[in-house]
Amino acid sequence: MKTKSDLKRLYNKLALQQQELQKFFELVQPYQAPMDRSLEYYEELIDDFLSFVGLSKNDETLLAAINRIVNLREDAFLQVIASYDKEQQIQMKEKAFLWVSRFYIKRFEELLEWIEQEQLFDLFYRRLLRHAHAIGKVMSSWQSSWMAQIIYGINEELYRLFEGDEGKIFEMLLQKGLLDKGHNGETADRCYSVLRMKEDGSFERLAYKEAFHEEVAEVLAKLAEAIDELDKIEDTLFDQKAAWLQYFQALYNALQQSDPDKLVPAWADVDRAWMKITTPLQIGHPLEYYEDIYRKAVALEWDVRIANPDYPSGERAKKIERMFTKVYQDIGIEAPSLFQRCIQNIQRVQLYVGRPMLFYGSEFNGLFSAQVVPNDEVVSKEFGKKIFAYPDMILSSQKAKPKMRLSKVVFGEELAEAIRGLLYQEEQWHKIYDITTIGHEYGHILWMDEDTEVVMNKSGMFKLTEEFKATSGGLMAFFCCEREDLWYELLLDHINRSVSLIGWMEVLEVLPYYVEGLLHLQALFETGIFRFCGRLHIQINKEKYEAWKSWYEQTYKELAKHYIKKLDSALFLEPFIMKNGQSYLPKDEEIKDFVEYYYDLYKKIGREIDR
Q1: Minimal CB count within 10 Å: which of 189, 235, 517, 605?
Q2: In angstroms, rounded to a whole number, what is the distance separating the alpha carbons of residues 372 and 190?
Q3: What pLDDT, on a 0 to 100 scale, did the predictor assign at position 35?
């Protein structure tokens, strides 16, 4: 009972901390009375942030700064620094990262002190949290050099050498064997190495240990300290000491590995050890690879997550399985091993619904709202996957944001109010989150074989279909098991997200989500829910909803066939989108006109509050 009580106390403490953090937004709310004196502290922090990054204070920079600090979102910040030259933008982004990392690390240290004072959990977990924090601080200091070498270094060089032709870049990387090797010597779907150009103009791969020698040495030292101390303490709460020690040792071994061709198998051992840890406190290690669009170098994630002890289990896995089985039968293409693999993975999912507790490194540039991992399909075949979701955090953060003028201009006042009103229908909101976000993470599991990503990624565009496939999978599971009168709220939420994703047009790290939004817009226009002629016209009724639903049912089946046949993702996307610099635009003229209209508005008034 003490364990559950301690988890609830910590979970509630994190909720209160988030509420405190969201007081920043009160600085931009319209007030009739003089400002609350307690907000002076938050105003001083904003002034310090803006001064540190080199921005003057006005309505736009104030809101951009708050979003960067509270929601860790870079999009508004990138817009307010867009007029600076590229080198200045990089320096300002780096300064913002440094300020934010220091701000949160101080907060995490205060939280850990509170846990010690309240004697929550047992000594094993209090020390484990301390070691996780020590490792996280090193990961955070490492992040700057990771960005400098990969994102602002070799990737800029590749872009210049090949004049921005990503297809040619990816072809060269494949031909010259510059991607990491997987489990059986095949090309892997991600890298734990860095590409470096030699003096003669050729390229070489360096393991993180070689490319970031000092930073990795520091992390290894912190891991060794954790292993040494935790080995002397007993886990009296969950009896998983052996699993934790095996996990930290696997991390040590993977970071110690200097042969680029042995990195993927070494990190697979990390994931294997991690899958055996089933406690409500979970650590997240380097898993995702969105930032590096060329070689998918794995980012420096490090965090601690806590599961909500009171979250209901639900039947989402059964709905996903039922939908997947029906679609597989409807398609009629025999792929028995893939089918069995996906069914097993659905049934073996470990679902953790809760909050982020501590986070570091690349996560100071944005937290995910949910995540399904590991990405290594060989490990997933053996152990299944973990899904993490943060509905309480997401709902609270969305409520705290001020009303934006852009929403009213694009959707009209009535629809903008209806969309915002969903946040206050909490029961309905959680059901929608279950469909669109947790369903999205389950949707990633479907139609995936061990080599699916590598084979479909020949043009480097796999991620651009994968996010759409995931969201569509969650929607399809709802369509398959529709019992509640939720269609209107679901469509409202979907419309809002699909349009808002246009704002990420020039943020390369989240390009897959922007492209996903373009495909959702295709559905909204094709089914007549959207029309655009100078301004957006929206028609929502049951008939339009049924047409929209049919569009997804047909398109999802076509995409599933694509995955079963392991065709290049570019072939699926070709009818819908075309290249536009480093980003994409819709091929359909009406949709293209709307996307350009919205993005132009976004740049002009996207940071203006509706007063």
Answers
A1: 605
A2: 16
A3: 56
